[in-house]
Amino acid sequence: MTTTHTDAPMTPAPTGPVEKTEQAGPGRADRISALLQQHGALAVLVIVSLVASFSFDTFATGDNITNMATSSAFLAIVALGMTFVIITGGIDLSVGSLFALGGVLAAWGSRHGTLVALLLPLAVCGLIGVVNGLLVARSRLAPFIVTLAAMLGARGLMLALTDEGAETYLVAKGSFLAELGQGTTLGLGNPVWITLGLFVAGAVVLRRTRFGQHVYAVGGNEDAAALMGAPVARTKILVYTLSGLLAGLAGALNAAWLASGVTILGNGMELEAISAVVIGGTLLTGGLGYVSGSLVGVLLLKVIQNVINQIGSLDSSYQQVVSGAFLAVVVIAQTWLGRRRQLM
Amino acid sequence: MPEEVLAVRGLGKTFPGVRALDGVDLTLHAGEVHALIGENGAGKSTLIKLLTGVYRPDEGTIVFEGREVSFATPLEAQKAGISTIYQEVNLIPLLSVARNLFLGREPRNRFGVLDMARMNREAEETLATYGVRVDVRRPLRTLGVGAQQMVALARAVATDARIVIMDEPTSSLEPREVETLFSVIRRLRDAGIAVVYVSHRLDELYAVCSTVTVLRDGRRVHHGTLAELDRLQLVSTMLGRDLGEVRTEGLTKFTGDHSAATDEPVLEAKELTAKHQLHGVSVSIRPGEVVGLGGLLGSGRTETAKAIAGALPLGSGSVTVAGVPLRAGSTPAAIRAGISLLPEDRKSEGIVPGLSVRENIALAVLPRLSRFGLVSEVKVDSIVDTFIKRLRIKASSPQQKVGELSGGNQQKVLLARWLAMNPKVLLLDEPTRGIDVGAKAEVQKLVDELAADGLGVLLISSDLEELIEGSDRVVVLKDGAVVGELSGDDVTEDNLMRAIAGSDNLQGVAADG
Q1: What is the CATH number for A76?
Q2: B152-165 confidence digits (pLDDT tens)
Q3: B227 reaches A (C-beta below 8 A)
Q4: Contact: B161, A209; criterion CB under 8 Å
């Protein structure tokens, strides 16, 4: 029997002139739509911040900025995990509860040392994330339902730990954990630096690793991704795990910052995180999104809250009305831009 | 003889109620381009799915490169060296071209971080050999379908494939892109890769394939060198008809003649054009006339019906009903004008199985029976009653769920729904597929009666007998264009097959007849 094939990889050599099958590039309008979708939130953030700086003497002060930065940090960490989940086309409603649970666990664990205070919330919240991921990926349940159940379960667990919320565990003054949450480095709070570090790492993972490619592929076209050999189930399990871990970490850092595990925190935080991610240009349908956008989205939400506080005469209840209206406008704009670009 | 890459023996697969594949053999050698053909339901896709690990065979063996294999997933088959490119491009539209090409095997530096520069460079080089010169950093979706198909092909081949299966790869390509695809297939052949080529376009088969396997009803009915068969033989093997076979009459319930009226056409479709699907198809139907649409799968029959019913976006062309032009691309407008379409896939596009016979029949006509949003129950009852009787629908009561009825009765319920709208034109897409013989005869008889009542009927059927005996005229489509029209005594199986096989042959037949 003769063998006609060679052992070389089968990339056919060019033979003769090849035809050009290229199509015209994306139009100018398409590029502008893409730019708006990716950086629109940043432009709005800059404009709102500039207007606020000129309108209120107390806005662009060092104190106000560092306060905003620190209070943004915790939501930003949660939104980072949410970004990964949403890019795969999923959703994670459990992060608000996990944030609260993480805080209580960290404060409770702090009496056994900083290591326990950090590892315990990561372990518990990470594990709940794994369960979320397994149920979504292996049992093919809807992410909405799975993480809704986890949200209720985690909050229940937190209430059980705190005797129905009656007991508040404190973080010992002067411990390393307290320093991690309350200390500053180069004028900015430690949580801010941790957040920035996580976002840089998150951006590299998403854009420059195989796992990141799989995250986009699963959200972009799950069936095709499977046929192309992407580990669909593993990718989903990993993103929910990551989201759980980050929510737990954010809760722990928040407890360190507040010096106690406050049980009433985290209500509705999942929705805030989702808003920030969507405002940042990530498609709720999956397949397209940016870590940097989510950070901008968080900052924008916090700046608007701050501005409303600055106005003073406006009841702080209206914060939520304005945030809600703003979100609606952004989602409408996103949908419109997306349709223009034929993404949906 | 080149090395044997694949030896399939006695492959069988049964689905509930259907013997999809029955003892099929297939042998592929290195550097062979093998045509796999057959009509709808012949078992092509089942065979491909068995080879690529989507399904597991019930019986038979697959020997790939000398070893017996059993793939659990498409990924396993792909890793072993059997790649498939599908009719619809299966890539990630929002990811860049390079990222798509390299997904899962991206070049990385020693920290595990993707080497984007190298990836983009190599992607550009690889795609250039396929005649695709694009900015590989652009999202895949900004490329034309042809270029996307090339990326899919480049990806399939780059994973060290020994066998590349192409399932109707040209269905959305421009002629120029088809040429590029062919040159790539020839290079694959020269590199010793075996190609399985599935297509309904006969020209393409003869242009690139050396061998052929013909499937019909789950069995292999022919295999050998393609050059030994001419087009007409190929088509007759595929459809299971012997040439010159004496035409038997009376096998269907059609009376045949509707004494075609000489009135003005009730429907006139002119130069219907839809990208990649229809290239200037014109059909006209007079009241009381049954016009058949003939052609192979993918020739544009269903698309023509959909285009007339406003369910397919048109590039150009016009539809006129009883002299009144129709607004293009609007299903409601078509329905108002009196066009009713019975879709090919009644499960997904027609019946609502959970609703009763009564509700299913009344569904479309409800808006006409209601006043101020309230439905007149009496009127609904009378209409439902009329049609159950007239179409001889066998249901325990009008309240029975349609999902519990037989296929034939489901089809009648659908027919009733549209007839209740009092249409002028009825478009029937495979009205008797998947229903038993008795019900088939019933439906055929109904079509006859409806035409006799003055309706214009467009009949699409893969059943040649049904098409020939049921139609007054047959318009033959090929690759989205009309290639012939038979009427009167010319409507015979022989002529029809010749027309389907290629327009050249038709001229000869016309001269003979």
Answers
A1: 1.10.3470
A2: 888 888 777 899 99
A3: no
A4: no
